[in-house]
Each structure stands twice: as C-alpha cells, then as structure tokens.
Specification:
There is one protein chain. This protein is of the alpha/beta class and about 270 residues long. The protein has one domain (about 30-265): Carbamate kinase (3-Layer(aba) Sandwich), CATH 3.40.1160. The chain is built from nine helices and eleven strands. The protein has helices spanning about 5-10, 55-70, 90-95, 100-120, 145-150, 170-180, 215-220, 225-235, 250-255; strands at about 35-40, 75-80, 125-130, 140, 155-160, 185-190, 195, 210, 210-215, 240-245, 260-265. A nine-stranded mixed beta sheet has the order 4-3-5-2-1-6-10-11-9, with helices on both faces. It has a two-stranded antiparallel ribbon with strand order 7-8. β1 (about 35-40), α2 (about 55-70) and β2 (about 75-80) form a beta-alpha-beta unit. α2 crosses α4 (about 100-120) and α6 packs parallel to α8. It is globular and about 50 Å long. The relative contact order is 0.15.
Length: about 270
C-alpha cells in the first residue's frame, strides 16, 4: 500500500461527520440502546485502591466493561480527568498561577489516557488517544472529523488534555466533545450511585434523585458537574447519566439503557 493510499484510508475528509453507525463488532440484529456515547471518567477513578497515580487493575476493570459495550456495537468516546496526579485549582489555591496549574493538569490527563489505552488494547479494543495539546509522539491531535472517523471504524477514542485551554474543567471538555462528535448521552462515572441533595458520605439522610432537569442542577448548585458543562448540555439537549463506577457492570448496564443512577435532561423530573 502506498503512503498516499494509507493516508487516504484514515482521511476524515470523506467521513459523514453527522452519521452514527453501529460499530463493526455488532452482530446482525443487535439494537443497542445508544449508538454513540461519551464516557466521562474522573482522574480519581483510576486510583483504585491507591493513594496516588494509576491502578492497572482498576484500569483493567474499566476496560473489561468498555470492551463489552464496544462488542455490542456502541461507539465510545472517553474523556478522562487528571485529579489523581495533579489538580490545577488546588495548586492555584496554594499560590501557583492558575493557567500554569491547569496546563500541568492537562498533561496529567494525557498520562491517564495512555494508561487507559494500554488497558483497553490488552482487552482487545482498538483505541486512539487524541490530545487537545500537540504531542505527536504519544497522541494524535484532536480533530473532530478524524475523531468521528475513528468511531465509525470501530475504534474507541480517548480525548485527553481537556479543551486545551486553562480555566475549563474536564467536565466541560466532556460536554464539548460529546456535542462535537454527535454522542447521544454523557455517562458521568462517579464514586456514588447518582446525584444527592447533600453529601451522602456525611449525611445519612441525603436524598438521591432518579431524575433532574438541567435547571434544577444549576439552581440547587448540586455540583455533580460544573455549571459551564451543565449549561452547554442544556443548550444542546445532551442528556447526562450520573452513576457509580465502582459497581461491577454498571457501565454496561447504563449503556444498555437500564435505569441506573440519576438522569439529567431538559424534561420534567420524575
């Protein structure tokens, strides 16, 4: 194959960026609930049982579920945070320039993305890391049409380095990328089984919501995602499902359309 032919094969210019097709691993007759999803993982999710860094066993736990969803024919984009390695806001609070701290945090997300890519490929899933900050030796540059093309070819994409700009969280990056790639839903993986009116770890009487509107999340400052991310989802009618990552098979169950965690939409609350 010539270099030109190889380049054309992955050239996103001919891709129909708005089309959503089942992945090539879907069996005939399969009808997954979602065709394309955006999974948002916090950096802390990769800690597992560790106090710092990345737990390879927990990455494998995540990868096994993503692999199962992928085999069902669902196209998957992942945005991962970097809080297990570095937090720009925390560093800024201690005197570091906020923009500098945020850029360091973006680099941490790339480290996490590479660790997650390794786990996914060990699980047999073709994966591409795409970074909003140029670092060609370890990741592809994020280009929307190329990202969509990877999805259409049955590859999982991990979208690292946030939006590439300081002062924006990876939650906002997840909302932005979900809209850009035409995802049908954002799956926000957390350490609790949904959205509560107060911290369930400190308040045993905290109420868990099964469904909320964007306006309620913003008005009550529930803090499950930052306000910029919620506003972007509201403007683009992008549903969000908040669920417990630590429960086995939860990613699979949510992607299959089961009622798990808290659904955030623009409709009336249940």
């Amino acid at each position: 194959m010539s270099e030109a032919t190889a380049a054309n094969r992955d050239d996103p210019a001919g891709a129909a960026a708005g089309s959503v097709q089942p992945g090539p691993t879907a069996a005939a007759g399969d009808k997954p609930h979602y065709r394309r999803i955006l999974l948002k993982l916090s950096g802390e999710a990769l800690l597992g049982t560790r106090q710092y860094g990345v737990d390879p066993n927990f990455c494998a736990f995540i990868a096994a579920q993503v692999s199962e969803v992928h085999r069902a024919g669902v196209q998957i984009g992942i945005v991962v945070g970097g809080g297990n390695i570095f937090r720009g806001m925390a560093a800024a609070a201690k005197g570091m320039d906020r923009a500098t701290g945020d850029y360091i945090g973006m680099l941490a997300t790339v480290m996490n993305a590479l660790a997650l890519q390794d786990a996914l490929e060990k699980a047999g899933v073709q994966t591409r890391v795409m970074s909003a900050i140029g670092m060609n030796e370890v990741a592809e540059p994020y280009i929307r049409r190329r990202a969509v093309r990877h999805l259409e070819k049955g590859r999982v994409i991990i979208l690292a380095a946030g939006t590439g700009n300081p002062y924006f969280t990876t939650d906002t990056a997840a909302a932005l990328r979900a809209v850009e790639i035409g995802a049908e839903v954002i799956l926000k993986a957390t350490k609790v089984d949904g959205v509560y009116d107060s911290d369930p770890k400190t308040n045993s009487n905290a109420k868990r919501y099964t469904r909320l509107t964007y306006s309620e999340v913003l008005a009550e400052r529930l803090g499950v995602l930052d306000a910029t991310a919620v506003s972007l989802c509201m403007e683009n009618e992008m549903p969000i499902i908040v669920f417990d990552l630590n429960e086995p098979e939860n990613i699979t169950r949510v992607a299959a359309g089961e009622s798990v965690g808290t659904l955030i939409t623009g409709g009336s609350p249940a």
